[in-house]
Every structure is written in structure tokens, then in C-alpha cells.
């Protein structure tokens, strides 16, 4: 249902309070907001709908309504009736806290920013080669060792350019329970990601027995200090499966949502090809090759999660070697992988790097900090079509749960840099996943008229529409433009 706005005529200072009630006939997350001289009434299809209606009311109340305490006199509001509902049920944002750790307060702040933009999924990328960020009590070395690296690559590039300061941090289980509860109050689901079998060098540094000891000196493996894909992947031993079952048992106790993301991407197969143990495992399992071995691992955890009432999600490489039966695909490399998964009867979350990777540079300006990837402008993100032509209008379209924008942090070492890369493009993304009918010129006018001021009130260090400021750049830090 497209948003319907009916102007009742007139406006006035808002001071009449807010009345709210649920009418399930409206449908999940839908709302009807009525504003008049006596205040506002919000009717929601459920509690989430009421909450999203409140966010729309905040917009009507002006930028100062986004401050943490009221200032000035009550704002004038137009007397309107607005009926609205989201196009998709999965409106997500992936935050990579593994490459550069974001303290808990920063994550809670991002929960508020997602809520203000009616986004309802926070995908936390908690583990990678460069850091393990979640406390696992039965395996304490994952954070004692795996949460810290001795130095970090400065920017991208092949020439040595290092920040020699150690970097690290992790969330205690109670920290994560707090984040989950805080998000739930704002009708946001937190999806944890524990990466397997690739992107696991930090785990192997902490517990060398997880690595391929017959071809690698696993005792010498450290938490990865550089970016890029690590050759150090998990072995396929039963003991490694039991180890990660223990990890996931604790993850399920922290995160009550349906989905657990297990990565499954960029798993280099060289060590498995050279490993007698891995080759024996391939023969034992009766799979065709190393791709089949990865698929077998993913299928194992797909079944393990399903037995506990959960669902596995993974990056689109989990299609290789045969897709796990209950898996949901987060399609990052292209639209084509998402189309293939949907046609095969699997749910899909679209997040193609060509359009919604927010770490990608925003212009060709030399002042862009650490230029990464292709140029992806505000308009590019706004014009993102969640349902690709290969699925639109077919029965398989229903397999598209929605989409998410991904913010990888190899080149974003501070919360300010994350803000710069994320906003205002996340605003454009939020409208793309909420509304089917869109008009970029209208969006630009609304950004200029009000929404940049809202971001200012929220304290967001966004990229200005006129381009990077002198202090936004990182002079001398090499990039990886495409």
C-alpha cells in the first residue's frame, strides 16, 4: 500500500498529546496517524506499527524533536491523516564491528538511528579474521586472544602502511543482552553473525586446534592485522563442529531472534586441497570436492539450528556445492545469486555490493576518505530496486524478504567515519525498502528542507551534500577504488 496523506486543513502548535491503539485489521507494521488540534492518534496494526507512526509524528514535529531533550516552544504541525505500511519485512543494516570494534554505546546509538528511519533489523558482524567480538564463556580465549590484534593496516594497498597501535575489544554477553533488549523496545531484531568456515583466523589464533595443522603451523597464526581474505580456514573435524556447537549454544541464549548468520563467504580452499585430513574427510562424507565439504559444514549447522527452532542465514557462497535446505541467502555479490536462490525455493535478503555497500566511496573527489570500491552515490542507493527484474511479477518474488545495507569497517576506524560512510545514504536506503513509489527529486527536496537538520539534531557526522570537508579525508592513506 503506498503512503496516503490527506491534509485536513490548517496547522497549529502541537500540545494535545498522543493516543495510541492497535487495530490488527491494518496488518503488521502498518499505521494510521491522525493529527489535529486536539493532538495525535496513532492506530497501528500491531505495536510495531504504533512505533513507526510515532517516528512519522517526530518528523512532523520538526528536527528538534530528534534531540534528546526538548528545546524551545512546541512546533507547529500540519493537520493530516497519514496511512502507511512498509513494503518489506526485512529492512536491515549490517554493522561490521569485527574489523574495527565499536563500543557498546555506539551500537546502542545506531539502534536509535535505525529506529528513527523505520529500519527493523540490525545484523551484527561479530567475528572475522581481524577480531572476535563476543564473549563465549566455555571458550574464553576467543576474546582473551581473538579480540585483539597487535596492529592494523592503514587504509588499503600493497605497500606497508601500518597503524602500530594494538586494536581490539569485545562485548560481554550482558552487553549483547542489553543491545538486544534495547533494540526490541524499538521493534528491531538483532541478527548475530558468527563466520564459518572461512574468515576464522582470529578463532584459530585463539584455539590452534581449529586450524589445518597438517599443512600449516597453526601455533604461529595470529589475529590478522591486514585486510583481505585469509587462507586460514577451519578444519572439518568432528571436534571443530562440537566447538562451534558450543559457541552457538551460547549465541542462542543471547539472541532470541529466528535468524543466526553463519557467514559462509570467501572460504579459500587451498589448505583443504593440501590437507590429507581434509581430503580423507571428503572421502568419508562422500562429497565431491572442497566445495562439497563447505556445503556439508553449512548443512550440518542448518540442521542443528533448525532442531532448535532457528534458521540459518549466510552469504551467497552457501549456494556453492549445494544449498542447505532451510538456509536464507543474503545476496551480496550480485543480484543473480539472489535470483538463483529464490528460484530454488529459498528466502533471500538482497544486499548487492553494486548498490548498497556503504563502505564504497561516494564520489570521485580526492577528499573522500580512503576511497574504496566503485562510486555509489545517494541517488544510486535511492534507486535501489530490492526485487530484481528476474523475480518481479513472478511467484518467486515472495521469496524476497527484503534488503539490508552493509557497512564494512576495514577503512572506517572510528564511529565518525562510520557515520560519514553510512549517512545520508542509509536515509535513501530506508525509503527504498519502505516505499514502492519513489521520486528522487522529491527525496532531495525533503533532505534539504528537513532531514539534514534532523541528522544534525541526532548528532550524525554525515557526508555533506556538497562533498567532503577538509577534515574528512585521511591524507596519505591508500584506498582501493574500482
UniProtKB/TrEMBL annotation:
Keyword match Cytoplasm: no
Source species, domain of life: Bacteria
> What reaction does this catalyse?
Hydrolysis of terminal non-reducing N-acetyl-D-hexosamine residues in N-acetyl-beta-D-hexosaminides
Region entry Disordered, spans: 463-482
The UniProt keyword set, sorted, is: Glycosidase, Hydrolase
Q: Which PANTHER family match?
A: BETA-HEXOSAMINIDASE, BETA-N-ACETYLHEXOSAMINIDASE
What are the residue boundaries of the Beta-hexosaminidase bacterial type N-terminal domain, all occurrences included? 15-84
One of its Pfam families is Glyco_hydro_20b
Gene Ontology annotations for the cellular component aspect, listed alphabetically: membrane
InterPro entries hit by this protein: Beta_hexosaminidase_sua/sub (IPR025705), GH (IPR017853), Glyco_hydro_20_cat (IPR015883), Hex-like_dom2 (IPR029018), HEX_bac_N (IPR015882)
| Example of a GO MF term | beta-N-acetylhexosaminidase activity
Name the top EC class: hydrolase
EC number(s) recorded for this UniProt protein: 3.2.1.52
A single GO BP term for this record reads: carbohydrate metabolic process
Q: According to its UniProt record, which residues of this chain constitute the active site?
A: 266
Domain (Glycoside hydrolase family 20 catalytic): give its ranges: 88-436
SUPFAM superfamilies cross-referenced by the UniProt entry: (Trans)glycosidases (SSF51445), beta-N-acetylhexosaminidase-like domain (SSF55545)
Which protein is depicted? beta-N-acetylhexosaminidase
**Family, similarity comment:** Belongs to the glycosyl hydrolase 20 family.
Amino acid at each position: 500500500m503506498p503512503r496516503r496523506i490527506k491534509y485536513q486543513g490548517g496547522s497549529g502548535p502541537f500540545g494535545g498529546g498522543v493516543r495510541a491503539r492497535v487495530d490488527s485489521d491494518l496488518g503488521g507494521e502498518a499505521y494510521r496517524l491522525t493529527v489535529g488540534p486536539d493532538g495525535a492518534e496513532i492506530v497501528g496494526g500491531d505495536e510495531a506499527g504504533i512505533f513507526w507512526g510515532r517516528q512519522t509524528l517526530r518528523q512532523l514535529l520538526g528536527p528538534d524533536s530528534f534531540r534528546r531533550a526538548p528545546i524551545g516552544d512546541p512546533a507547529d504541525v500540519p493537520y493530516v491523516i497519514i496511512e502507511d505500511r512498509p513494503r518489506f519485512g526485512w529492512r536491515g543494516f549490517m554493522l561490521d564491528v569485527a574489523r574495527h570494534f565499536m563500543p557498546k554505546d555506539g551500537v546502542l546509538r545506531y539502534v536509535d538511528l535505525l529506529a528513527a528511519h523505520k529500519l527493523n533489523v540490525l545484523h551484527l558482524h561479530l567475528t572475522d579474521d581481524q577480531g572476535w567480538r563476543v564473549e563465549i564463556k566455555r571458550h574464553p580465549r576467543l576474546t582473551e586472544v581473538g579480540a585483539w590484534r597487535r596492529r592494523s593496516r592503514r587504509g588499503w594497498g600493497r605497500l606497508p602502511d601500518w597503524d602500530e597501535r594494538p586494536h581490539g575489544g569485545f562485548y560481554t554477553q550482558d552487553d549483547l543482552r542489553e543491545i538486544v533488549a534495547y533494540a526490541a523496545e524499538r521493534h528491531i531484531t538483532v541478527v548475530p553473525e558468527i563466520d564459518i568456515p572461512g574468515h576464522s583466523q582470529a578463532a584459530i589464533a585463539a584455539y590452534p586446534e581449529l586450524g589445518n595443522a597438517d599443512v600449516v603451523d597453526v601455533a604461529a597464526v595470529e589475529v590478522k592485522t591486514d585486510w583481505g581474505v585469509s587462507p586460514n580456514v577451519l578444519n572439518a573435524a568432528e571436534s571443530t563442529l562440537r566447538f562451534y556447537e558450543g559457541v552457538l549454544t551460547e549465541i542462542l541464549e543471547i539472541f532470541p531472534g529466528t535468524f543466526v548468520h553463519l557467514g559462509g563467504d570467501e572460504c579459500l580452499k587451498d589448505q583443504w586441497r593440501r590437507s590429507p585430513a581434509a581430503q580423507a574427510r571428503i572421502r568419508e562424507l562422500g562429497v565431491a570436492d572442497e566445495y562439497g565439504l563447505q556445503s556439508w559444514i553449512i548443512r550440518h549447522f542448518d540442521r542443528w539450528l533448525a532442531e532448535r527452532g532457528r534458521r540459518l542465514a549466510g552469504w551467497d557462497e552457501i549456494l556453492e556445492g549445494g544449498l542447505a535446505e532451510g538456509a536464507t541467502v543474503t545476496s551480496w555479490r550480485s543480484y543473480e545469486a539472489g535470483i538463483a536462490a529464490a528460484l530454488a525455493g529459498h528466502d533471500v535478503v538482497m544486499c548487492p555490493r553494486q548498490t548498497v555497500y556503504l563502505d564504497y566511496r561516494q564520489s570521485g573527489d580526492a577528499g573522500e576518505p580512503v576511497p574504496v570500491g566503485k562510486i555509489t552515490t545517494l541517488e544510486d542507493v535511492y534507486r535501489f530496486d530490492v526485487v530484481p527484474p528476474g523475480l518481479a511479477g513472478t511467484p518467486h518474488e515472495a521469496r524476497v524478504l527484503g534488503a539490508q545495507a552493509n557497512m564494512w569497517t576495514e577503512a572506517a576506524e572510528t564511529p565518525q567515519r562510520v557515520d560519514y560512510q553510512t549517512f545520508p545514504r542509509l536515509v535513501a536506503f530506508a525509503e527504498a525498502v519502505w516505499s514502492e513509489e519513489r521520486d528522487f527529486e522529491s527525496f532531495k527536496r525533503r533532505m534539504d528542507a528537513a532531514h539534514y537538520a534532523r541528522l544534525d539534531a541526532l548528532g550524525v557526522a554525515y557526508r555533506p551534500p556538497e562533498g567532503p570537508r577538509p577534515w574528512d579525508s585521511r591524507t596519505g592513506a591508500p584506498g582501493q577504488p574500482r
